[in-house]
């Protein structure tokens, strides 16, 4: 199988050229084994981020395998990816969305993905295990949850660049652990996958018209996963592959002073779009409706789950006393 890997770069505050972020991510791409075309999308207003844009323009010279596509402003995660796809004359069998704060530590990811995609035709999208993801299904453990990241960030006075260097010993330990997993072991079906290193079948992605570009910051991955599931394709996390997620981007945007409100507005707008498209139903319940049938889920499974959760909370309160 061939892969088209698209790195969507959004750097409105000229901070992603820090050596621990974008340059390191790009260098790590070239450790990947397998047939892969690399495309970098500048999803930032060129006038607003001249330093980042100038850096990106050096990439095709430093790395002749890279193709650079420059857009005129931020189209969001999904919009930037979609425009990159449309600008290419040819595409690989599998499309990969790689975040610019991801770091490749498992060079065999693409080979492992190939084995799964070839063996299981109804797997539409894959993601390796990761760290600091909002989706707990994708984290290697609760020790590496998004909540754990926020606690670590508190020590740095909310400055991501003051976080400790990449934990090489911890990464090596994680790689050793996942190396013991049976090849091709998955967590599936899932209602969403992160966009840190998201691989999707090209034909399926195009048949769904790609990401919904009404979503600017969030929700686009969930919406796509559910539309994919409606067509009979599953999203899955690979238990024998790993990518390290630095999670710098939204921490940087979140502390960006007056521009922080722009991010908050994008998220709220995304929630409004979600509610319009999916009837205001939480995405986990949409997924359960699709899996079990709306009648069975709403009338039996959901009330039973809520009762169990209520009893568990009551027991915890009694136990704590």
Keyword list:
single chain, 321 residues, alpha/beta, Spore Coat Polysaccharide Biosynthesis Protein SpsA, Chain A, 8-stranded mixed beta sheet
Helix content: 40-55%
Assembly type of the chains comes to: single chain
Side by side, the strands of the main sheet go: 3-2-1-4-8-6-9-7
Shape: globular
How would you describe this structure to a colleague?
With 321 residues, the protein is α/β, with parallel strands linked by helices. The chain has a single domain, classed as Spore Coat Polysaccharide Biosynthesis Protein SpsA, Chain A (Alpha-Beta Complex), CATH 3.90.550.10. It has 12 helices and 10 strands. The protein has helices spanning 22-29, 50-62, 76-87, 109-119, 146-154, 168-178, 202-207, 220-230, 249-254, 260-278, 283-292, 294-320, and strands at residues 2-9, 35-42, 66-70, 94-99, 102-103, 123-129, 186-187, 197-201, 234-242, 244-245. The protein has an 8-stranded mixed β-sheet with strand order 3-2-1-4-8-6-9-7, sandwiched between helices. Strands 5-10 form a two-stranded antiparallel sheet.
Quick synopsis:
The protein is of the alpha/beta class and 321 residues long. The chain is 45% helix and 17% strand.
Topology, please?
Layout lengths: L1 E8 L12 H8 L5 E8 L7 H13 L3 E5 L5 H12 L6 E6 L2 E2 L5 H11 L3 E7 L16 H9 L13 H11 L7 E2 L9 E5 H6 L12 H11 L3 E9 L1 E2 L3 H6 L5 H19 L4 H10 L1 H27 L1
